[in-house]
Amino acid sequence: MANVQDLDVIYNSGSAFIEEHFGNYDQALSLHEAAIAGLNDIAKTTQDEETRSITRNQAQFHRRRLSLLRSVLQGENRNLPVTLPTFQSAEDSILIGNNGKTAIGLEEPLLSRYLIDQFENPDLPPPSQIRHLTQSAIPPYAPTLDPSLPTKKYSITVESDQANLSYLLKAHPADYPDQTFYYLRANRWGKEQFESVSFYRSAEFAKPCIEINIATVEPTGNKTFSSLKSRPIEFFTANSLRPVVEIPDNIGERPWGPQRFMYGGRQFAWVTPEGSNGLQLPVLYETDRVWLDPKNNMGKKEHTIIGKRLCWGSFKGGVDATVEITGGVDQLFEELLLASQITKLAVFLFGHDS
User: Fold this and answer.
1) Are 301 and 287 within 8 A, CB to CB?
2) What pTM was estimated for this model as a whole?
3) From the CB of residue 308, how many other CB atoms can be counted at a distance below 10 Å?
4) Which InterPro entries does this entry report, sorted A to Z (predicted)?
């Protein structure tokens, strides 16, 4: 992670995109200019090569937004083509809710906080927003999503520094391929496989919105076969007190899947598409009943699916990859799903030596 500790630079950089979010373009322009100056100063004076690279890239990112802002302020365009995701847009997303119901991205941190507090005080009643999650029959999530809303599609591009085994996987909205919404930073220097990666909003370069720990697996001697081994993954989000943990039915099984996790009190499973030989991004479903497969003695489980698929993706070798998320998913849950898919892609492409 970049060793950027200049609070003014961090403030100016993040605040520029917040002002864009609220449509305050004059203020945003000034903050972008201040951020560029500060980032350039860090790039010139730092002795750390990674920090130099990150601050230069972020300065260039601000320059591209400056050009867009000037086109609006000079009357060439009426609005920015797209507003970038920030903590403010995430907060707006979960406060809007989902068809009159509490957004799952808000249910998860509220439930996490309540379960911790309840451990100390067993008689503590749940907050009204999550009372339904403490009942014996928890209402499902997937059927609440509006089927008329369009899916969100991201194309994934990769920048790599093979000499330092450092990789940047960027997520671009399909409708605006010249804009970067998110990126995952992965470094395998001195390691045989990825053990941790970080997922960032592009507008918030100084601190990841999700930190990810990846369990190691026994190498096979073939890096492709090793990348196909399933493994637990922990996601530490900025808004929740407990990690989201993906757990495979059988650790080390090849190919991946299913990978199961809990979020907002519901059960979900990533399932590898059939006929893909495992080298493909999985599909996410909400699940209901889960049971051990009586015909399998390796711990494999079966499940029933609730509603339609929530997230899926594809890649055709190399780095020609896309990720799609069904419409209506709030920003925080969307970010978790996108981070999970890009993490798996990083493991497939660069995760192993052998």
Assistant:
1) no
2) 0.95
3) 12
4) MIT_dom_sf
Can you spell out the DSSP letters for 247-303?
EESSTT-SS---EEEEETTEEEEEEPPTTSTT-S--EEEEEEEEEE-TT-SS--EEE
Low-confidence residues of the chain: pLDDT under 70 = 1-5, 163-164, 276, 297-299, 317-318
Q: How many CB atoms lie within 10 A of CB 166?
A: 18
CB-CB neighbours of 38 under 10 Å: 21
Task: Establish whether the linkage from the previous residue to 258 is cis, with ω within 30° of 0.
Answer: yes
Angle at 354 between CA 323 and CA 257, to 5 degrees: 40
CB 313 within 8 A of CB 322: yes
DSSP string for residues in 138-198:
PPPSGGGS-TTSPPEEEEEEEEEEGGGTEEEEEEEETT-TT---EEEEEE-TT-SB--EEE
